[in-house]
């Protein structure tokens, strides 16, 4: 089987059943400018010390077959090819038809459970404006799993999606720019003979940090902020112990879902 594994790390907000077609949407809020984040929060004092976050797409160099489009936007970083995400829609162009299996409920924190009930997606979750969101990734098939590299730390969400032939990831910039198509193939099959290419999508602070207030960045995509003055009253969160995957993000209360 050909396919793709997408690892989501950092401030990636998950919206199951985002539309009537059953799309699962992952949104990376634009948190690159702390001053802009503060204004968008309504100057909430809990956002005073937010660190700048960078949204990035990371590919394994040896698995890249071809890049058609904006090749200049990629840069090398060790064994990875990296592209900063500054307003783009991502999708798997040749995902095989099938159902979407959600296995993330074993500890993946759901945003509305933490502070206030009835939180819903706000307008930014549907935005195509780069100052609102850095990236959105839509998919309708595959298997989602949640895990943690360290017990009690941030969840990483892993999507495994079969494809028809070598997986193709399409990156479409907001505003109608020319799409870039990345064709991938993992030359080394797994134990089941599957060729699964790896993609990493993350939204992490510029400097390593596990500050719990970063969790509040998810609320910029909701219809309102968490209640309560002062520091956020966020309990310990994170996935239960699971497979130890390569983590390129820093641990924090990050990946969450708005039901």
As residue ranges, the low-confidence spans are 229-253
Number of domains: 1
Derived structural class: mainly beta
The backbone outline, from C-alpha atoms, is globular
The largest pleated sheet is described as: 8 strands, mixed
Please give the order of strands in the largest beta sheet.
Answer: 6-7-4-15-1-12-11-9
Question: With helices defined by DSSP (H or I, 4 residues minimum), what is the helix count?
Answer: 1
- Strand coverage percent: 35-45%
The Rg value, from CA coordinates, equals 17 Å
Percent helix: under 10%
The H/E string reads EEEHEEEEEEEEEEEEE
Name the average pLDDT. 83
Cα end-to-end separation: 32 Å
The count of strands amounts to 16
Q: Could you characterize what this model shows?
A:
The structure is a single chain. The chain is an all-beta fold and about 260 residues long. The longest helix has 7 residues, at about 35-40. The two termini are about 30 Å apart. It is globular, with a radius of gyration of 17 Å. It contains 1 helix and 16 strands. It has one helix at about 35-40; strands at about 1-10, 15, 25-30, 55-60, 65-70, 75, 80-85, 90, 100-105, 135-140, 140-145, 155-160, 170-175, 180-185, 195-205, 255. It has one domain (about 1-255). An 8-stranded mixed beta sheet has the order 6-7-4-15-1-12-11-9, with no helix packed on it. The model is unreliable at about 230-255 (pLDDT under 50). A hairpin with an 8-residue loop joins strand 2 (about 15) and strand 3 (about 25-30).
């Amino acid at each position: 089987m050909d396919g793709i594994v997408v690892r989501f790390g950092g401030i990636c907000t998950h919206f199951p059943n985002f539309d009537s077609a059953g799309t699962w949407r992952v949104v990376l809020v634009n948190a690159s400018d702390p001053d802009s984040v503060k204004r968008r929060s309504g100057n909430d004092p809990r956002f005073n010390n937010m660190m700048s976050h960078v949204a990035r797409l990371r590919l394994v160099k040896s698995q890249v077959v071809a890049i058609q489009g904006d090749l200049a936007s990629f840069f090398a970083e060790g064994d990875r090819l990296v592209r900063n995400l500054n307003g783009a829609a991502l999708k798997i162009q040749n995902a095989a038809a099938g159902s979407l299996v959600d296995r993330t409920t074993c500890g993946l924190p759901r945003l509305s459970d933490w502070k206030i009930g009835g939180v819903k997606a706000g307008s930014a979750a549907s935005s195509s404006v780069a100052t609102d969101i850095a990236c959105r990734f839509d998919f309708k098939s595959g298997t989602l799993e949640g895990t943690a590299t360290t017990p009690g730390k941030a969840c990483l969400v892993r999507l495994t999606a079969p494809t028809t032939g070598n997986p193709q990831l399409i990156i479409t910039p907001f505003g109608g720019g020319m799409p870039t198509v990345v064709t991938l193939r993992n030359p080394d099959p797994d134990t089941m003979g599957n060729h699964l290419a790896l993609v990493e999508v993350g939204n992490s602070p510029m400097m390593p940090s596990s500050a719990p207030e970063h969790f509040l960045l998810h609320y910029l995509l909701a219809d309102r902020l968490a209640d309560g003055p002062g520091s956020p009253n966020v309990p310990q969160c994170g996935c239960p112990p699971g497979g130890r995957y390569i983590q390129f993000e820093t641990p924090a209360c990050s990946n969450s879902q708005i039901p």
